[in-house]
Amino acid sequence: MRFQHLTVVALLLAFILASGLQASAQNQRQNAIGMEEIVFDNILARTSIRSYQDRPVEQDKIEKLLRAGMAAPSAVDKRPWHFVVVTDKEVLNGLAEANPNAGMAARAPLAIVVCGDKTKALTRVPDYWVQDVAAATENILLAAQGMGLGAVWTGTYPVTERVEKVAKVVNLPEHIIPFCTIVIGYPERPQAPKDKWDEGNISYNTYGGKKTATQEPAPAFHDFKVNEDFMLNPFNYFSQPGGLLVCAGDRSASNAMTIGWGALGTLWGHSTNTVTVYVAQARYTHEFMERSDYFTIMAFKDQNVLRYMGSHSGRDGDKAAALGLHVAYTENGTPYYEEAECVIECKKIYSGTFDPEEFKDDIPRNFYDGFTAGYHSFYIGKVVTAMKK
């Protein structure tokens, strides 16, 4: 009996330990995914900032910037860098005069002159110091972005005249070469980053080589009945993390955008399953919704797709192509993306635009007070196709 008791205790302990390890592993995976998104978003959000608030950068943040720079890779771990931190107004003015691209230094609270120390360079390939300090520079720029600072990289090396002038301003010895000046401060105003994605700059395996389909094929869609197999809460469906995409158009042109408003239900007969979506008049997708007889809503696991679709306009470029999404079409010619997890196709049966004279509560009145994208149009669609993976 005692042996059985000990055996049960041992099994319970083993179960608790295993559960704890499993939970810990799951938390680590979730944290890793969260960290991946933070790092990636920080990289994509970085942009050159050239105007700053009249506010000093704290010493602890300056040290973090330098630590980030020194965490960069270098050839054979030589670390051939030296950083000159400049906060003195007279010296900042001197840097602005020494480099025509660094004029903003005269109005900034901080600059870091990133230098190469030739005495620490790799002996057999001494010019590798240029790559090493460039890596340190990019680390500093990304760290500045992550701390809410704005920064801009202004080049010095290899323009001989600039090298000589900057070296004189900060009193560098002969073996220390000024590579660039990073001008830093708290941004005077927010500035949107540029979308620099361009598949034309990519080759695979050899120059000009095309991407090959080496990955596993995407899971196939299968049809389902929304009134029988749709098990999600309709009150949460549109507000799920990241929202949903709505897409309209045809084989010649289409556009999608992220939405967080919508309704699921029945209308004009219990067998008429409907989806209602709302699109502001100023959005590019509004044009497609107005002239299309059908539209789709799509759920995605990839939050980057939803963020990008919600923060970029189709007027500025092909958002689907920029994200690497593949457009497919239903039997009715309605566009959707093969990468979606769920697609619901709807045939428009009614549409309209909010009339502010009919607002019966302060909720809509307060929302549109100062809203510049126009009142929302609403589109009620009858569900004609539903697919999920």
Q: Can you describe this structure?
A:
- The chain is an alpha+beta fold and 389 residues long.
- Helix content is 34%, strand content 24%.
- It contains 11 helices and 14 strands.
- The protein has helices at 2-45, 59-70, 89-98, 128-146, 160-169, 226-229, 234-237, 284-291, 303-311, 319-323, 362-368, and strands spanning 81-86, 110-117, 150-155, 176-185, 222-223, 244-249, 254-259, 262-266, 273-280, 294-299, 327-329, 335-337, 342-353, 376-388.
- Strands 5, 6, 7, 8, 9, 10, 13 and 14 form an 8-stranded antiparallel sheet that branches. The protein has a 4-stranded antiparallel sheet with strand order 1-2-4-3, with helices on both faces. It has a two-stranded antiparallel ribbon with strand order 11-12.
- The longest helix is centred in the first third of the chain and has 44 residues, at 2-45.
- It is elongated and about 85 Å long.
Brief descriptors of the model:
4-stranded antiparallel beta sheet; elongated; single chain; alpha+beta; 389 residues; 8-stranded antiparallel beta sheet
- Written as H for each helix and E for each strand, in order along the chain, the element string is HHEHEHEHEEHHEEEEHEHHEEEHE
Gross geometry: elongated
Q: Report the mean per-residue pLDDT as an integer.
A: 89
Q: What Rg, in angstroms, do the CA atoms define?
A: 28 Å
Distance between the termini: 52 Å
* Helical residues, percent: 25-40%
| Total helical segments | 11
Structural class: alpha+beta
What is the number of E strands?
A: 14
